[in-house]
Amino acid sequence: MDWFDSLSLIDGPLPVIVVVAGVLGGVWLLVSRSRRYMTRGLPIAATAAVVVTVIGYLIVEKVWRPLPDPIETSIYVWIGVGIASLFAVIPRSVAAHGVVGTLASVVAAVLVVAVSALNINLKFEAYPTVGTALGVEPASRIQFSDVPGAVSRTVTGTPLDSVWTSPAGMPSAGRITSAAIPATASNFSARDAQIYLPPAYFSDPRPLLPVLVLLAGQPGDPEDWLNGGKLAETMDNFARDHAGLAPVVVVADGTGSPIDNPLCVDSPLGNVDTYLSRDVPDWIDSALQVDRNRAHWAIGGLSYGGTCSIQMATNHPDVYPTFLDLSGQREPTLGDRDRTVQQAFGGNSAAFTAINPLDLLKSRQYPDSAGIFVVGSDDNDYKPGQQEMYDVAKAAGMDVQYVEVPGGHSFAVWSEGLRRELPWLATRTGLIS
């Protein structure tokens, strides 16, 4: 079934087939010879869908507000379309009469829901293939208990590729695994980290590789970097061109759940700062055989994770002197400054200022830090903030770059941003010359 799992949900024939089938399903639900259905059943279903969607919008955007930024209207429209198709199933089945008509109505609704889901996914490109959408485990995944332990012979040097020769028998691709990182100092309730180990990690002698800590967005999950982020593909391609060398990548959990927003700080919302600056590095040092020189470590992330990466780089430059901020915000936020200060800092504005990257960059110098700000050229919501952060970071003495990638606030930008900037990261962290 590998061929099926690898089918693209972004381009190629499958999205076209789904759209065509969905249109046919929509026609079935919209048209009937039954006057009762056309004048009562269909309008009631459509009205109910609008009401439910509007109520959902009000709860999410005005009451609950789990996300710092509003969800785009087009997403709600597609959600409403899917709901309307489900509401129409029963009256359309009654109008069609019989088992065949009922089956046709159910299938039509499923096809419309599939089109709605497809269009939402096309907006973010979170699931590039059928396999990622279905949660199929990659063939490269292994249990953490199967990761080889420390070896006695290691290879070190800067740049590492100048002293490294790949041995016979080295795997042709890296491996994916996962592990729970104990929150010893922070007591933060984190989900398992996802870990990429390049081919050279499975060699003896083993090169002491640099470390890249990656963070997902909010809402999000560490697995997002394996799906829409195309982490393994990007790293394997890089390793293939560099004798099996690539950074060891640890995708740590920076939120605690798919929808929580603990702002990447230590607060009543969770001690994420301590978790990422102490617990995660301590675990990496003890559980993986890597380069322990923090000058060869980097942190990066997308959206919320991008904001978190610059927070770590400014609050803990000794741990993460290198960062990759992909579509991050100008400051950690729960939607606005007042709400953020009240809920996470007990109303203490000075406490927020003391950890806010924008304020730190205006008051301190970071001559030993470097980073790249990446944003989608069509991401009008996040682009001004990224430009501002770049300007302030440059003024603070950081060696920084500002890069625009075609696209919006989506995995198309974030996966391409990582691929494009990986050579810079590898050079900066002493892996290649």
UniProtKB/TrEMBL annotation:
Keywords: Hydrolase, Membrane, Transmembrane, Transmembrane helix. The chain crosses the membrane at residues 12-30, 42-60, 75-91, 98-118. The keyword ATP-binding does not apply. It comes from Rhodococcus cerastii. GO terms for molecular function: hydrolase activity. InterPro entries: AB_hydrolase_fold, Esterase-like, Mycobacterial_A85_antigen. It holds the Pfam family Esterase. It comes from the Bacteria. PANTHER family: DIACYLGLYCEROL ACYLTRANSFERASE_MYCOLYLTRANSFERASE AG85A, ENTEROCHELIN ESTERASE-RELATED. This is Alpha/beta hydrolase-fold protein.
